[in-house]
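To illustrate the input format used throughout this study, we show a single complete record. The first block contains the structure-token representation of the backbone; no residue identities are included at this stage. The design step must infer an amino acid for every position from geometry alone.
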């Protein structure tokens, strides 16, 4: 054990509510600048609105397809769970490069050391003892993975779900794509993972894998359909523009600025309940 009372395999987080509050403000502005829109799939709205309500721990399992994912978790917490403290693992070597992430609740592990998993479980159980409403964010695929690749996850999330009493497990799917603007769109879908009949590590492994795959499939279908009505806009989403001078000319001549795809839009997908 280290002198701070933590396993030597863990680089503990240094949570700062003030810092993550400022960083959320920065991320929100960054998303507004870099993305044409941040969209939440409509069936996820009720789930998102309930995440900050309960007194139990919350485990978010998210796919990992982009550099932006680390900032998505900051936005996710600020938008949906602003009263929860956060913990999330990161390769300890990378955490040395981005040490400020420790103030966001990130702790360091060695993903290639088999002893890191039990050390992580002990660390997080200790953190839950301090704060029973702790929010844990994991990317259980363990590496950057294309959204079209079938979901395969490491066992860490399932082990935590099996050991943490009363935990609520939620799958978050994120995807990035281009629609009709020069900037990309960020798409989110959030759904609860149903507690398995057999709530062991094996049972949770199956349940989390299935939920993440179904979530990714549903989100992808709606992104492919390009149906803006299937999403609630969280940031941005204004009419796509071409160029300030040409946009002004279009306005003067009474023509639309946005690209009109209404004649070429496929039948809309049914909404999920």
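Output of the design step:
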């Amino acid at each position: 054990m280290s002198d701070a009372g933590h396993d030597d395999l863990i680089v503990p987080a240094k949570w700062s509510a003030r810092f993550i509050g400022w960083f959320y403000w920065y991320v929100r502005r960054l998303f507004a600048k870099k993305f044409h829109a941040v969209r939440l799939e409509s069936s996820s709205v009720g789930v998102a609105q309930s995440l900050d309500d309960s007194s139990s721990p919350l485990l978010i399992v998210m796919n990992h397809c982009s550099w932006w994912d680390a900032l998505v978790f900051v936005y996710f917490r600020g938008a949906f769970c602003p009263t929860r403290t956060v913990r999330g693992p990161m390769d300890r070597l990378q955490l040395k490069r981005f040490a400020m992430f420790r103030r966001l609740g990130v702790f360091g592990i060695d993903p290639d050391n088999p002893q890191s998993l039990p050390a992580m479980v002990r660390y997080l159980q200790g953190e839950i003892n301090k704060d029973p409403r702790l929010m844990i964010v994991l990317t259980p695929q363990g590496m950057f993975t294309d959204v079209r690749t079938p979901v395969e996850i490491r066992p860490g999330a399932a082990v935590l779900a099996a050991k943490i009493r009363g935990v609520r497990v939620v799958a978050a799917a994120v995807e990035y794509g281009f629609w009709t603007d020069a900037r990309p769109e960020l798409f989110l879908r959030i759904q609860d993972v149903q507690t398995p009949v057999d709530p062991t590590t094996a049972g949770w492994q199956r349940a989390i894998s299935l939920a993440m795959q179904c979530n990714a499939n549903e989100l992808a279908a709606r992104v492919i359909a390009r149906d803006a009505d299937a999403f609630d806009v969280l940031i941005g989403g204004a009419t796509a523009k071409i160029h300030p001078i040409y946009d002004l000319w279009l306005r003067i001549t009474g023509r639309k600025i946005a690209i009109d795809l209404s004649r070429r839009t496929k039948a809309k997908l049914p909404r999920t309940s």
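Structural context for interpreting the output: The longest helix spans residues 201-225. The chain has one domain: 17-240.
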